[in-house]
Predict the structure.
Amino acid sequence: MELRQVRYFMEVAKREHVTDAAVSLHVAQSSVSRQLSNLESELGVDLFVREGRRVKLTPIGRLFLERMEQAMGVIEEARRELKEHLEPEKGTVRIAFPISLAAYVVPAAIFAFRKLYPEAKFQMKQALYRDLIDGVVNGEFNLAMIPSLMEDERKFKKKVLFTENIVALLPVEHPLAHREQIRLSELKNDSFVTLPNGYAFREIVIKACLDLGFSPHIAFEGDDIDALKGLVSAGLGTALMPEVTLVHSIPQSTVKVPLANSNLIRTISIISPTERQLLPTEQLFYQFLPDFYSKLTPFAPPGRGSLPPS
């Protein structure tokens, strides 16, 4: 069995048409038909059912396709790994993160990394907390930035990157908007706006309230941080926000107020698989992140670092 035969088989399976597959592969139709016939003869099974000019996978053909997709994925990963070992500064970093890190935290790091390695490439994905962990464990991506919650860490490694404050975002007409700081318990009668179920930051907010003896009244949910900002700006409720999400601007008609509860923080970590090695470019990025965040405000201690231009 040759790689060429497998590629022809997968293209025909995708298009369910030999001629269309041949056009896509830039080869003659007769060449595709001959290679498929040789493959079926070697395997001793029919991979396709012919229906006029179209073809359909047989049950054994579908099983073979699944296995070949896995095998080709391994082959492509091996090729990428070999290439990156020769030129790690030109490889690709596959990383995922929650939506609350999308506007500033991750882009700032990528911008700084690519100043050092301008030919590095990134494949990025936003996902929920559980999907971030599953994606690293299952091999969908090799790195994920996550809020550090209680978790079984046997299947992944974790490195803390930074800890940030959680603040209150209030409508400008809120009775407490003029205060320099407030206690979270003073908001127990407020209507809250939060992210939907499944988001780790929502769990942090609810747990913080429950620890103080009240269950927050959630009046509205928004699918991302900008939606929450908009709801607060419209006067529809109060939101607790990671301070980093308010780095560049505070929405109109809102006020950011620090919380007096000193333990109300969020810790962000980077996780990687225990059963796979990072590719060279990913390893470079993994090593780069802790030092980057240690020098960048608002993550660094007072007096250290500065924000990049907005």
Q: What stands out?
A: Residues 59-86 form the longest helix (28 residues). The two ends are 55 Å apart (CA to CA).
